Amino acid sequence: MHTDYIVAGLLALALAAAPALADTADHREFDAQVHTPFRAPGDAAARDFTLHLSYPDGGRVHPVWWRLELSGPGGVRHWQGRERLGAAPRTLLRHWDGRLGGRPAPAGLYRLRLRAGPGAAPPAAPRRTAGRARPAAALAAPSAGSATAAAAAADAIVEQSWELLVGAPPAVALAPFAALPTARGAAPAPATPAPPGAPAALPAPSGLDYTVYLGNLHSQSKHSDGGAALDHCGGAQEPQSAAFGPRDAYDFARRHGLDFLMTSEHNHMYDGSDGTNASADPLAARGLYQGGLAEAARYNAEHPEFLAIYGMEWGVIAKGGHLNILNSEQLLGWERNGAGQLLADTFSAKGDYAALYGLMREHGWIGQFNHPGAGQFRVAGRPLGYSADGDAAMVLCEVLNSNAFSRVVDESEPRRSTYEKSCNAALEAGFHLAFSSNQDNHCANWGAAYTNRTGVLIPKGTALSSASLLDALRARRVFATMDKQSQLVLLANGHVMGERFANSGPLTLSVRYANSEGRGVAALSVFEGVPGRNGVVALLGSAADSTVTPAPGPHFYYAKVTQDDGRSLWSAPVWVEQRADDGARR
Predict the structure, then answer these.
(1) Count of other CB atoms within 10 angstroms of residue 78
(2) Average pLDDT, stretch 136-141?
(3) Are 146 and 182 a contacting pair, CB within 8 Å?
(4) Which among 258, 245, 292, 239 has a CA at the least distance from the CA of 484?
(5) For a tag site, which of 3, 159, 416, 535 has the least CB within 10 Å?
(6) Range with the lowest mean pLDDT among 20-24, 159-163, 266-270, 369-373?
(7) Which residues, other chains included, contact 324 with Cβ-Cβ below 8 Å and sequence gap of 6+?
(8) Residues 6 or more apart from 148 whose CB is under 8 A from it?
(9) How far apart are alpha carbons 257 and 517 in whole angstroms?
(10) Please, are residues 490 and 574 in contact by the beta-carbon 8 Å criterion?
């Protein structure tokens, strides 16, 4: 009997020291992406949709389902199906013949939506392939499973949407403005030329005395699961096994034109494993993190024109979600070695975002939601659940990522993911967040996979430094762009994007866009939401300058511009508390 107790106790300790791989491992989750040309040759309608599906999970085979919906002036059309995925990803092509409802699609902007997830359950909508509809019952019914498994599958659903154009770009009444100066140029970038008959370029609005810095706030090196040479990089690396470290990443990014780069190393990989290393040395784990901080500081001293940022990507995707902590001098973690020693400086329980936010607020650490999924970052059981601590700590939401495992070095990576729906949900929950656009580089191509950047506005005459960048991020003076040659600024009654202010009477919203290579605008949208409502962000209008009188109470507004090449930009929101005596809208 005593022997049984001892064996049971040892087994419990072993399980505690080495959790199941499925609960711990990162980058083994289901993922899906879709891309298509924004404009087809000759402004035609017909084009291919390319769907990428992956579910590595150690080579285990999983059923997955997917659904595409195309909607626009000519109606709606659907494609859907099921696949079985193992270790190898799968690429599917679906051809659109340019017709909707049996007729050629009229000119205009369309939206392609992807929804996909693990499991055998098909989407609820009817399937249409080659113009023929099938009832959902024609596909397999959902497989039996526990409520927990069903909830996990729901949390893993991927939702994305992209715009595409049929015909010539519509005329958008948007006067260009003289762009703000950038760090790499002594003078402002030239304004986008106005088309014939359009208004002349506007000067930069008064009060915008800022310099724009462009960089990437999400990448990995060999300190966790990144840093692989391009000819040996096929995905996430075994932790601490690759060739290139933080200094290599900073040097690559600086030489490729970035103003700043964050190496955001996975906090649970400082033991050298993707699980829990029972023999790990806590001094070595903590020393590696402190060494990374010191390495960034040395690089900044040698290269004052560039900002090297070293921090952590906290959490796991399964049953959680990744977020970056940009300025922590401590390694946070939950893992312990076989002797029960914490493999971090400070304990933070896995998946406990409420406690993490409290710790971040206490220390003044700020964060970014990374590639936020539909069911992640739960507080009190609610995805993207709001708390006052979280609102104080979290400043950014990653609205777009290029392919994390890209090996491209000429900025031509075709695979990208967008998270606008989740970011909008966080804004509606009450978070005060600016949009960011990063690359999540795991291969040795930091910032070179695509043209997307996070743009940060720092006051003119203030040098780029950790302090000045963090101040700008706390002020949410940030825009997200898919085109490093473009800028987007939103003003509201003279207040710059990112600001929070009280308002009486009318509110004038002004959108200012600039591109240094002559790009035009295919679509402009101004959105409105209500923090704390947990509702749906709504389209307010499509004018560059508009005046409204909001209903009494809190509101937020942000702008989105889609260029004539399909690349988009997002401004940070402004947050307005409309006074109760202002009367009705408009």
Answers:
(1) 17
(2) 36
(3) no
(4) 258
(5) 3
(6) 20-24
(7) 217, 218, 262, 264, 311, 312, 313, 314, 367, 368, 370
(8) none
(9) 17
(10) yes
Q: Are 439 and 252 in contact (CB under 8 A)?
A: no
Check: CB of residue 191 under 8 Å from CB of residue 201.
yes
CA distance 431 to 396: 9
- How far from chain centre, in Å, is Cα 2? 54
Tokens of 139: 């596909």
Query: What are 160's strand-pairing partners?
Result: 114
Q: Which pairs with CB-CB distance under 8 Å and at least 24 residues apart come from 534-538?
A: 534/425, 534/428, 534/429, 535/428, 536/424, 536/428, 537/424, 537/427, 537/428
Q: Residue 39: how many CB atoms within 10 A of its CB?
A: 18
Six-digit token pair at 85?
A: 């995925």
Instruction: Map tokens 């060999």 to a residue.
Output: 222
Tokens 């290393």, located at residue: 277
Give the per-residue pLDDT at 263. Answer: 98
3 state SS of 57:
helix
Q: Report how far apart the first and last C-alpha atoms of the chain are (Å, whole number).
A: 79
Phi then psi for residue 565, to 5 deg, are: -105, 5
Q: Which two tokens stand for residue 159?
A: 């939702």
Q: Which two tokens stand for residue 195?
A: 């088309």
- Closest C-alpha to 62, from 28, 27, 24: 28
Q: How many CB atoms lie within 10 A of CB 203?
A: 10
Average pLDDT score over residue span 552-560: 98
How do residues 114-136 score in pLDDT, each as one tens digit? 999 999 874 454 444 443 333 33
Instruction: Extract the tokens encoding 74.
Output: 């000519």
Question: What is the DSSP pairing of strand 434-438 with strand 394-402?
Answer: parallel
Q: What residue has token string 């939702």? A: 159
Task: Tell me the residue type at 398.
Answer: E
Q: Which residues pair with 94 in a beta bridge?
A: 49
584 — alpha (psi -120 to 50), left (phi > 0) or beta? beta
pLDDT tens by residue, 34-48: 999 999 998 899 999
Cross-strand partners of 570: 480, 560
- Residue 91 corresponds to which amino acid? T
Q: How far is CA 267 from CA 28, 76, 323, in A?
A: 17, 44, 10
SS3 234: coil
Residue 68 CA, distance from chain mean position: 21
